[in-house]
Amino acid sequence: MKINIVLFEPEIPQNTGNIMRTCVGINAKLHLIKPLGFSLDEKHLRRSALDYFEHLNYDVYENFDDFTSKNKGAYYFLTRYGKKTYSNIDFKSIDEDIYLIFGKESTGVDRKILSLHIDNCYRIPTTDKIRSLNLSNAVAITCFEVLRQLDFMDLEKMEPKSLKGSDYLDKFK
Fold first, then answer.
1. CB-side exposure of 157: number of CA atoms within 13 Å?
2. Burial of 115 (0-12, 13-18, 19+ CB in 10 A)
3. How confident is the model at residue 52 (pLDDT cuts 50, 70, 90)?
4. Residue 24: is its pLDDT beyond 70?
5. Is the pLDDT of residue 46 over 80?
6. Residue 26 in contact with residue 148, Cβ under 8 Å?
7. Cα dihedral across residues 31, 41, 134, 18: positive or negative
8. How far apart are CA 37 and CA 147, in angstroms?
9. SS (H, E, C) the chain
10. How far apart are alpha carbons 34 and 67 in whole angstroms?
11. In terms of Cα–Cα distance, which of 1, 167, 12, 2 is closest to 102?
């Protein structure tokens, strides 16, 4: 099973750059569905993704039909119109690739697409004062719920030796 992040027509390069960094950090594949509101070589995008861009596993699709024709698995749409919360999904019971699908910042996923997948539409609870959370925050929240349920599969639970190491703070005593 693999975690996949799908951005339907993303508009803001900084959000996508932050999501790229998250994907690298959790070994998730990123799927970008056109049209994109930016160029993939924009400096804002690269700055948000920092020096992790070279490690990013991603694909770009012409439209949602192109995406679905090439990717099979369990689709979960994150939308303000969902009638269930993302934490209600039992990710441990899923034995196929997981696709977390997020819409563009201004209007979300096309309503016609959502209506065809209404049973797989989920919401991140918020107050009635906002329409939704920032896209990159919503992706991070949802991804880490999946990972929490899967005991953070294949992720480092302590600072790896390749960085500072798990004993790094000991020298500051």
1. 7
2. exposed
3. confident
4. yes
5. no
6. no
7. positive
8. 29
9. CCEEEEEECCCCHHHHHHHHHHHHHHCCEEEEECCCCCCCCCHHHHHHHHHHHHHCCEEEECCHHHHHHHCCCEEEEECCCCCEEHHHCCHHHCCCCEEEEECECCCECCHHHHHHCHHHEEECCCCCCCCCCCHHHHHHHHHHHHHHHCCCCCCCCCCCCCCCCCCHHHHHC
10. 10
11. 12
- The pLDDT > 90 percentage for the chain reads 86
CA distance 140 to 26: 10
Is the Cβ–Cβ distance between 79 and 123 less than 8 Å?
yes
**To which residue do tokens 């209506």 refer?**
115
Distance CA 95, CA 114 (A): 23
Per residue in 86-98, pLDDT (tens digit) is 999 999 999 999 9
Q: Is the pLDDT of residue 102 over 80?
A: yes
